[in-house]
Structure formats: C-alpha cells, structure tokens
Amino acid sequence: MKAHIKWVDGAMFLGESGSGHTVVMDGPEEAGGRNMGVRPMETLLIGLGGCASYDVVSILRKGRQNIHNVEAKLEAVRADSEPKVFTRIHVHFVVKGRQLKETQVKRAVELSAEKYCSASIMLGRGGVEITHDYEIIDVD
C-alpha cells in the first residue's frame, strides 16, 4: 500500500492513495490554513470508522441479516499536550434492518473490534482506549 502527500500551500495538503483517489487536508485559518479540507487526525478517525463499518456490514451480510443501513458515529478524545494523540475513541453503530438478530449484530461489532479492523486494532495496541456499542432499529 502506498500514498503520496503533496503540500499545496499554507496548511493545505493533497493526499493521493495508491488506488488513485485524492483527499484534501487543510488546517484552520489560525494555523495558516483555509479550512478547505479535513484535518489529518479527522482523516485517521474517518478511516477507523470506515474500516469497522466495512467489517460489520460484511459480517452481517454473511450472516444473512436483512440490513438496510449501517452508520458508525465516532467520538474521540485527544491528549491536551503534544503530541496530541487520541487517548480514547468510542464507536457507536446504528444498524437498521428488518428482523435483525441482536446476537449477530453484537458478534459482528465484537469481531470487527477484536479480529478484523486493522485500524482499530493498531490504534488499540498503541494505547488508545477504544470502546464500541450499537443500537438496532427495526424498519418495516
């Protein structure tokens, strides 16, 4: 896996993934940016949410659950002093579907956290306290 980061100006950078997709990263005006993109640490948090969500959807589909939508809402706390690393991250899944089995939703969240989501596991091994929970919404 590769990535290429190019400085544009101020606090703005373009990140290009090995698959050819680009993301704009920028800082706030007080840091020399123009607030025209996500912050690098936000990108990391979004990546963790995407990784975990992918796992949960995949596991629920394999379990033949009738899912309509899965959302992950993440909240992170960062250290007060430099380096301002994440110290805690909470991932709340909202799983919508028809006649979902709670045991399978719970298991999908656990498998993502403990076995499959490399972003979550990597950050957890690095000392970040990561917690997960979920809610199930039955749709007609």
UniProtKB/TrEMBL annotation:
It comes from the Bacteria. InterPro entries: KH_dom-like_a/b, OsmC/Ohr_fam, OsmC/Ohrsf. This is Putative redox protein.
